Amino acid sequence: MIANIIAGALAPTTPPPPLLVDYLVVAGGAGGGRVKAGGGGAGGYRTNTALSLSTGVSYTATVGSGGAGSTSTSNQGASGNNSVFSTITSAGGGGGGSQLNRDGVNGGSGGGGSYNSTPTAGTAGSGNAGSYSPVEGYAGFAGEGGGLANRGGGGGGTAIELSLSFLATISMVR
After folding, report:
1. How far is CA 65 from CA 8, 31, 88, 131, 163, in A?
2. Out of 80, 92, 106, 162, which residue is the most buried by the measure of CB atoms under 10 Å away?
């Protein structure tokens, strides 16, 4: 028990109440593949209300960087990086498939599979990598025959790091 001494007597005090905050945590998007490629998946997206945080405690927020597009037909696009705030994590998007490495990568939202006429097109990467409810993202799309565009998808955003402090002052009135 926390206590203060007031006029020679032991007087109990109450601990400060927790802070309830709304949050939105979005991870970095992924890069697309190269040549007849699938696009990179979006970063996971998690939001809710009433996350309980303690007063007087510092919380770090990390914003995941985006993945680069592939520079080789043999490599998929790079997946995005996770974003984290307190106990909440959002998974980075899955990279898109390329001409020779066709399957999309699993992620917050899955990367798309690439087009390939032989033997098969790439499969989609699955989404919701953290298995959250509600889901943080969805699967990409499988590659299909037809399209001949030889460009990869774009990369995700840049990263920043924040340090947040929540302090509360509790006053006692007699």
Report:
1. 57, 11, 17, 21, 17
2. 80
Which residue type does 59 have? Y
Task: Please state, in angstroms and rounded to a whole number, the distance separating the CA atoms of residues 135 and 68.
Answer: 25
Cα–Cα nearest to 25, from 81, 105, 104, 96: 81
Q: Helix, strand or coil for residue 164?
A: strand
pLDDT of 50 above 80 = yes
Rg (CA), the chain: 23
Report CA-CA distances (Å) from 118 to 115, 121, 122: 9, 7, 11
Q: Measure Cα distances from 41 to 28, 69, 108, 173 in Å.
A: 9, 11, 7, 54
Best CA proximity match to 43, nearest among 165, 162, 171, 158 = 158
CA distance linking residue 13 with residue 30, whole number of Å: 50
159 three-class SS: coil
| Polymer length in residues for the chain | 174
Q: Look up residue 118 and give its two tokens.
A: 């032989």
Q: Model confidence over 140-166: pLDDT tens digits?
A: 888 876 545 444 344 444 444 444 444
Tokens 């032991």 belong to which residue? 10
